[in-house]
Design a protein that fits this description.
Elements: E1 4-5, H1 16-24, H2 36-49, E2 53-57, H3 60-71, E3 77-81, H4 85-89, H5 93-98, E4 101-105, H6 115-121, E5 132-138, H7 151-163, E6 167-171, H8 175-182, E7 195-199, E8 210-214, H9 216-228, H10 237-249, H11 254-269, E9 274-276, E10 285-290, H12 297-306, E11 309-310, E12 312-314, E13 318-322, H13 329-345
Parallel strand pairs: 1-11, 3-4, 3-5, 5-6, 6-7
Antiparallel strand pairs: 2-8, 7-8, 9-10, 10-13, 12-13
The structure holds pyridoxal-5'-phosphate.
Length: 346
């Protein structure tokens, strides 16, 4: 039986050319700064993002944590969305390891936070308050339907932060999806942030790794924090090699994933008994839900799973599907047929 795995774009496996690049990678000890392949990936990533320097990390979670720990001291505060990945899904690392106080602001359905809400969250100088140090944005926004923040919004939020003397971090796990959806160069989405991460291991299909980008001084400090977290790697050119191939070969095909997500969303909208918020289908993530009480999200996910179609249940009623490398238009049609059949029976 064929498996169509729509749970996440993290399930993508390295491409044949990545395996080839891994095999041939020139290696050294990266903790001494001597891994030529890692150095090359970091130069490429910094250049792509329009920043001075970059650093390979194990995961997006580690990347966000390194950035937060580099920018905030214990007892200081970071403003972030109440549906942000860092707040919801990173095991509370900012508080657990950094003593950083999270100040959540409500995420709008499009993944933004209203500027007036951000402004209200920034603390004044008062002995009662923690110091606000950092504003965190997320692009694309995972829990908000994979929505893309525009350059205009990002610039406006960054200008507000700058005006109030706080830094801006961008969780750009899927920043290339945002750039593809908006038809802009990725630099337009990063130009005014102080630090950012992006993932190599999601839609770009590399097996492991994320990259932190920022100023030279920021990355120098971040290297120390990465070491504290046990993230100093030795011959990590093994994973950087796949990351280079990802940047060279996998960025331009992302639009295909978006077309497939749209196809899936449009098909689901036509199936009686399923509800989908169409506003959210901008990139490769969609959320939908069964509306009739007879059939729960759990049952639907389980029964499609038995047919080899894997979806992810999020919360009691919602289902997530993510398109990625290896998912074809035909897979989408098979998924829609299976969903249609299931809904007819229920
Ligand atoms: C996946 C994801 C991360 C974390 O990446 P991992 O490599 O899974 O740790 C961070 N932010 C967002 C928005 C994500 O979707």
């Amino acid at each position: 039986m064929k498996t169509i795995d729509l749970r996440s774009d993290t399930v993508t496996l390295p491409t044949p050319s990545m395996r080839e690049a891994i095999y041939r990678a020139e290696l050294g000890d990266d903790v001494f700064g001597e891994d030529p392949t890692t150095n090359r990936l970091e130069r490429m990533a910094a250049e792509r993002m329009g920043k001075e320097a970059a650093m390979l990390v194990v995961s997006g979670t580690m990347g966000n944590l390194v950035c937060l720990l580099t920018q905030c001291q214990r007892g200081e505060e970071a403003i972030l969305g109440d549906k942000s990945h860092t707040f919801l899904y990173e095991a509370g690392g900012m508080s657990a390891l950094g003593g950083i106080h999270p100040h959540t602001v409500r995420n709008q359905p499009d993944g933004t936070m209203q500027l007036t809400d951000i402004e209200a969250a920034i603390r004044g100088d008062n002995v009662h308050f923690p110091r606000t140090r950092l504003l965190c944005l997320e692009n694309t926004h995972n829990r908000c339907g994979g929505s893309a923040l525009t350059p205009e919004y990002t610039d406006a939020a960054a200008a507000l932060a700058k005006d109030r003397g706080i830094w801006v971090h961008l969780d750009g796990a899927r920043i290339f999806n945002a750039a593809a959806a908006l038809g802009v160069d990725v630099k337009e989405l990063t130009r005014n942030v102080d630090s950012l991460i992006f993932c190599l291991s999601k839609g770009l299909s590399a097996p492991v790794g994320s990259v932190v980008c920022g100023s030279r001084d920021f990355i120098t400090e971040a290297r120390r924090v990465r070491k504290v977290l046990g993230g100093g790697m030795r011959q990590c050119g093994i994973i950087a090699a796949a990351g280079i191939t990802a940047l060279e070969q996998m960025v331009d095909r992302i639009a295909e994933d978006h077309a497939n997500a749209r196809r899936l969303a449009e098909g689901i909208a036509r199936i009686p008994g399923l509800a989908i918020n169409r506003e959210g289908t901008q990139t490769n993530i969609i959320y939908f839900e069964p509306v009739d009480e007879q059939l729960t999200a759990k049952t639907l996910v389980k029964e499609l799973g038995e047919k080899g179609i894997k979806l992810l249940q999020i919360g009691p009623s919602r289902i997530r599907a993510v398109t990625h490398y290896g998912i074809t238009a035909e897979d989408i049609d098979l998924t829609l047929a299976a969903l249609g059949k299931k809904m007819q029976k229920s």
